[in-house]
Amino acid sequence: MTDSVIELDLSTPWEPPEPPAPQRRLQARWVAAAVVLAVTLGVLVAAGPRPDGGRLYSVQVQVLQAQVSNGRLIVARYQPTAPGPMIEARRASDGSLLWEHSAGLQLQMAVAGPDVVLLLSESNMGDGVSNGLVVLDAATGKELWSRPRIGIQGTNAEVVVVEEVRSTTQTIIMDVPDQEPGVNYARTKPERRFFGLAARTGAVVWDVTIPAGHDVDLGWASPYESRLVGFDELGPTGQLTRRDARTGAVTETHQLDVSGTSAMLGSGWLDSSGPANNRLVVYPGGERGADVYDLATGRKLFRWAGDNGGGSLFRCTDRFFCAGDDTGLTAVDSTTGKPRWHLDGPVVVAGFAGERLLIGTFSQASSQMAALRPTLTGIVDSRTGTVVKKLADWRVLNTDGSRPLVWRPVDERTAILGELDPATGTVAVFATAENWFGDPMCSVDGRFLACLVGGELSVWRLPNPH
Q1: What is the DSSP letter of 227?
Q2: What is the Cβ-side half-sphere exposure of residue 449, based on CA atoms within 13 angstroms?
Q3: How far lies 430's CA from each of 336, 392, 438, in Å?
Q4: Residues 231, 193: contact at Cβ < 8 Å?
Q5: Global pTM?
Q6: What is the pLDDT of residues 183-216, one digit of tens each?
């Protein structure tokens, strides 16, 4: 079956839905925080709704990045006469300027929450690269607090999670020592110290030190957000300690039959759509593949033979793990490790919708951030691996776990925007975008969509959920 398109009647005014309960929607993990797209734009043009499906206005002020949150549009842009970017807050509905805040030259990213804006900066202190954090009041732009020499790990409704930077703190490893390809590389594990800081005051809410030799696995709400919900600690004796990232409190402990040094571990889920995690995946250092453990009994269930260099195991249903490599995507039973189904070719899981998986492929993208958004190819029944719907050239707009918004090029400068129904594969088109050439960087929050693409930032009011 091919994909279907519904053209919505946009001539009749509609009432926007009630905004959702406030929650922090952050657009990228902190490992990608230093990646920004610099495009040269012009001036702000604000106008009423246009006939192209709720487009409200465009912002053209030398924009670096933009994010919508809680009815505000947070924009980082170049300043023509000063070093460092300017941070602006605008009313999302009409683009009216609310406040401005001049930022430092080393600013890497501005992240908006419901009531705060986090400004992340990067500096070289001589013993490694560390992040600094400045927190602004989202309503006024007033600086609330700041903290230097920390590594930003994530945030949630309660706290900002940071790591203390020490001389032994490891940065991103660019080169792995010479070893056989596909063998898990076990790094040195120094002592690490994590803090949960109150978002509005910077006060320490919790303080956890991870002893040397222990592994840490941070658990996010989705693979493309920084909403940190929990973290695991695995000691060399096999003791697993699970903590709530909001409070730092221990929620579970398990004794696993683990021996040797681990290179990496993970609970498996790519997002928070599944039930409580009952498996742990450990990649033994100096070996290939991974061992899967049952948390209830602590025993090893099976060895996955795939190599860590070509991908890793992740939970794609409550019963199966999935792994991708050069041959395609394979699902294996999470208890026995036996293969259940396989899809040929370059396939990635782009989203979850109950018992359906949205699958796609990565194309040659013009930016690293855009490369996080795949082109959809179909919808798969996760129980059988059957492709129940093929999708032609629809590309993902947002990867934050909210409404499944997509776009498709019409010609070299025009695109159509729509919302995908994962149950049927139908796309309800709600807008036509002009001057759309290249890969978009988009942000969604409740009623608003903001996309920076091809030299222009446009803001749309979304229709009622389809």
Answers
A1: B
A2: 31
A3: 45, 18, 20
A4: no
A5: 0.80
A6: 888 888 999 999 999 999 999 999 999 999 999 9
